[in-house]
Design a protein that fits this description.
alpha+beta, 10% strand, five-stranded antiparallel β-sheet, 446 residues, globular, 11 strands, Phosphorylase Kinase, domain 1, four-stranded mixed β-sheet, 3 domains
């Protein structure tokens, strides 16, 4: 009966938030699209502000999957109006931890005995809280300091309910952006979040990236302690640091913000363009930093959302980036075909868009980069897509694009004076040129 009540009550709360929102949008949309009525921009802005706040409040109240979905939506300026992006971005830091009595039973069930029998010291106050679980500092019997990430109770059931309701609304909201394949984006998000609930899978991803970064200076990937890791609990080594956007950290005279951002850029360039295995959720809560003896030190956390790029796609992606940087239009178009964005035989149709993109964004000055309006770019991109039929956005690009958007936003939070593109360019070239060449028949990254 409890499970049935959870499903009914949670579904009802989502429906009574989304259905009025859809009705509020569809009436002016139909009037403007099919009857030629001009809807004032102020009315659209008012709609965006009112319903984005309502969804935000719903996510905060219901927690779980809705917060995570809201966090992802906050990075999709290519889909949502800027008012929605701005409001939902507040969810990145809006997860309150559960009290210790609520999560202690999860540890007891995972290990089959009281947690203090395994960890002599456990901080009952969570050091961090995320959408699906929270982190507690602990110490093992041999004295090693560790981080215990503990899954929330009933989180899997709540996520399944949320996706069921959102799946129902997907066709309704798709009419607003018919040129974008919301179904593919929805399935990719669903797959990513379902995978994120499996802590044993996350442990494997963490071990893979940890091995890839072995020996790198100033960048730490936590080490997994397998003997203390279960399906609902993941145990890793502890890193003493503060959230990368912490005002106290950034205001410290000894903190070199540019050098810190360079570490972030180096980490993701290596993951994306060299290893083909990357953490796709680089929001501030997943990045810790501290001031070391030789400058900033960075720790990347939370490998629940990891994308492993297929070998052929990975090679085409790196080739497209190299062609864009070197302004090689023919190479860029060929890479887009191999990636799957441009259908084979439609290369000439893509030439105008590719040339325009390289000329406009490939030669921007630092001041122009800083002044970029991503909402304007989104509208321009959507406009181009409506004239270029046949473009298909592969699922692999969904998280890749989202990751780049989050990194761009992170850069502005840490130091808005830094030109991230200029900072990244030499590292991208170096990484691509130094990466070993792989045969198409080589095994996929593990």
């Amino acid at each position: 009966m409890t499970r049935l009540w959870l499903a009914v009550s949670r579904s009802f709360r989502v429906v009574v938030t989304l259905l009025p929102a859809w009705i509020a949008y569809v009436v002016p949309f139909v009037r403007e699209r099919y009857f030629g009525t001009k809807i004032p921009d102020a009315k659209w802005v008012a709609l965006h502000e009112r319903h984005s706040v309502r969804f935000y409040r719903l996510a905060v109240e219901m927690r779980g999957g809705l917060i995570k979905i809201g966090q992802i939506l906050s990075t999709r300026a290519d889909i949502l109006p800027k008012e929605w992006v701005s409001t939902l971005s507040g969810l990145q830091d809006r997860v309150d931890p559960l009290p210790w009595p609520a999560v202690r039973p999860i540890l007891e069930a995972a290990f089959g005995r009281p947690p203090t029998d395994i960890f002599p010291e456990i901080d009952e106050h969570a050091s961090a809280a995320a959408s699906f679980g929270q982190v507690h500092r602990a110490k093992t019997t041999d004295g090693e300091r560790v981080a215990l990430k503990i899954k929330y109770p009933d989180v899997e059931r709540k996520l399944a309910i949320d996706f069921g309701v959102l799946g129902f609304f997907l066709p309704l909201f798709s009419i607003f952006v018919p040129q974008l394949k919301l179904g593919s984006i929805f399935q990719e998000v669903k797959r990513a979040l379902t995978t994120e609930l499996d802590y044993e899978q996350e442990a494997s991803f963490t071990e893979t990236v940890h091995a890839n970064f072995e020996g790198m200076e100033h960048i730490t990937i936590p080490r997994v302690l397998r003997e203390y890791t279960r399906r609902d609990v993941i145990c890793t080594t502890w890193f003493d640091g503060k959230k990368i956007t912490d005002p106290v950290l950034l205001s410290d005279p000894a903190m070199d913000r540019r050098a810190l951002l360079e570490l972030v850029i180096q980490a993701w360039i290596k993951m994306v363009y060299v290893d083909g295995v990357f953490q796709s959720d680089p929001h501030p809560g997943n990045l810790l930093a501290r001031i070391g003896p030789d400058g900033p030190e960075l720790c990347v956390l939370d490998f629940g959302q990891v994308k492993i790029l297929p070998r052929k796609f990975h090679k085409a992606l790196t080739r497209s980036v190299m062609s864009f940087i070197t302004r090689d239009i023919e190479g860029f178009i060929g890479a887009l075909v191999d990636i799957g964005i441009v259908p084979k035989g439609r290369e000439e149709d893509a030439r105008a868009i590719s040339t325009k993109a390289i000329e406009r964004y490939g030669s921007m000055t630092p001041d122009q980069v800083q002044a970029m309006d991503f909402d304007w770019i989104r509208k321009e991109l959507v406009g181009e897509l409506t004239h270029f039929r046949g473009i298909i956005v592969p699922q692999e690009l969904v998280l890749y694009g989202r990751t780049l958007a989050m990194l761009a936003g992170l850069t502005r939070q840490v130091d808005p004076t830094v030109d991230a593109f200029a900072l990244a360019k030499p590292h991208i070239l170096s990484a691509i040129l130094s990466a070993p060449s792989d045969d198409d028949d080589a095994p996929e990254p593990a």
